[in-house]
Specification:
The complex is a heterodimer of chains A (338) and B (315). Chain A is built from nine helices and 15 strands. In chain A, the strands form two sheets. In chain A, strands 1, 2, 3, 4, 5, 6, 7 and 8 form an eight-stranded antiparallel β-sheet that branches. A seven-stranded antiparallel β-sheet of chain A has the order 9-10-11-15-14-13-12, with helices on both faces. Chain B is α/β, with parallel strands linked by helices and 315 residues long. In chain B, the strands form two sheets. Chain B has an eight-stranded mixed β-sheet, with helices on both faces. Chain B has a two-stranded antiparallel sheet with strand order 5-6. In chain B, 57% of the residues are buried. Classes of the chains: A alpha+beta (338), B alpha/beta (315).
Chain lengths: 338, 315
Amino acid sequence: MKQKIKTKTTSKQTLLSLIILGILAIISGGVFIAQFSYNPALQQMTPVLAAEDMRMATAPVSGSKSLISLPPGQSPLSPPEIFDTTTLSDKINGKAELYLSAGFVQLRSQRFNDQSAGDVWIEIFVYDMGSPQNAFSVFSAQRRDDAQALELGQFAYRTSNALFFVHGHFYIEIVASDISESLISPMMALAEAFIAEHPIQVQAIGEKELFPKEGLVETSIALVAADAFGYARYDQVFTASYMLQDIELMAYYSRRKTASEAKELASSYRDFLIAFGGKLIEADLAIDTAEMIYILETYEIIFFHGPYLAGVREAADQQPAQELALRLFNRIKEIARE
Amino acid sequence: MVRSAKAGASILAACSVSYLFYDRAGPGRLENGTAGVQIPDFSVPQLGQRMSVVRGSSRSETLQRAIKSIGGMQAFIKKGDRVLLKVNAAFASPPMLSATTHPEVVTAITRLCFQAGAAAVTVADNPINDPASCFRLTGIEQAARSAGATVFYPQKEYFKTFSLAGGQLIRNWPILYEPLSRIDKIIGTAPVKDHHRSGASMIMKNWYGLLGGRRNIFHQDIHTIIKELAMMVKPSLVVLDGTTTMMRNGPTGGSLSDLKETRTMIVSNDQVAADAFGATLLDKTADELAFIKKAEAMGLGTADFQSLNPVRESI
């Protein structure tokens, strides 16, 4: 006959269990509280000097003293320096975030001297951004007002002391330590030497074709890699400025992975604007999916079509905003059909 | 018996796992400076809050006028004082790009300190880039030496562990302590710059150069670290150079087109007020820069620089 097993716990067992559970609860509470006083020093490892990592990363590249084959008359003034995602801020400090958020892979830099330039030096910064689109993003984010176009590629300009251009997945800056027209020639020679040494298959960035031409400020086209318009979920957003009826306004679009993602993101951005004081405006819009928001004394229109999320921002008046939104919508429809 | 054996086995397994994960060394610590150090208060409280703003294009002239108008350097620096001039030498960048303290400012402050009776002036920073290149290419080294100052190059053994009282971020962190340990007064000087992360880089942000280690981790909470830096250093005087302001693409810039001639020199012993004024040169307000509001809330100075009735002059 099977003996019945006594299953009832004794008071001692119950007490012991409660004590163990109590200890576990105290430990959990301690861990929970401790996480609010996180100390970065726990991640603090040597080196103490900020530049130590950089020095480790400045070993000559492949035994060469120069990052690239230099044009005649130029010679290196410093060893090549290489920075990756963890050391980029050792070179450019707070600007690193701009590059990191846009897909930065590696920076190589070096200072050179040109025989004809005396004590003046030229520094080249070669940012490997991983893709032409990423390179365009950091290029467009920093475009200078007094830019003069250069024949170095689809996206290139110079200012009084520097050249800036995109070459494939590279974004390149060549900066002189002084202002002189005579420096432009050696800087151009350096740029051309780099281009010759890094042949790439030209990949046009087609965003210029998507924005309607009328009223477009050609040089204003930019790609915001992350956190566009202060909204964390808006990334890879192309923007462009327009002048319509003497009113300046902005158009933008972003191609999402799916139509449903574009729709959901449009709705989410609308809610974001409303949460920050925006008001939904009843308007007879010619685009089925469009909504108009009035915020900070300007009008915003948000719409979607297929995988495209698009809109118009910062319009002081409704009418130009609606006109531009409709033109952008028609252009997106054309592109989508193609 | 079976239950006891099972319980014993469970305890043994738990202990074995704990032993496996046990880190005898504990979290990573610094190699040097096991004992924490303290930073003295270098301010001159009996002077009250003073501020002057002088407009002009010559840095040496506007600086001299600005300091004279708030009592002269002798009000802040006494005979025999050893002075540390904390410059911004973060980048190996030419002076014309205004990413670093201008050499003319270094020369002018150093000379004024010596005229006031300073026994020694030391120029220091822990640059982002290689220190030798930074001090040389910025022109700071030559400017300092020509005026009689000593340039202090950071070396590993000059850092000590520091914990800021009430600090959330600066805890057990290496700071460039050696030059701080042998001075009586500290003067901070920086150019006015846009900063991609914090919105602006001026006086308070410039103390960042006293930190060692992988300080870029603090960029994740940039406004709090700037506030804590202002808590860490209570300066005798600050000189904010707004002669040329880096309006965009900061803090490195790169093109002259990033700059604007704003022709303004700001001198104060209230670093919060100096930064609040500097914000206006960037076409911003103190309210737009969270670190200024945080520093003010900590009682480190006032963002309402008008309340100090700053002396205003033009040259």
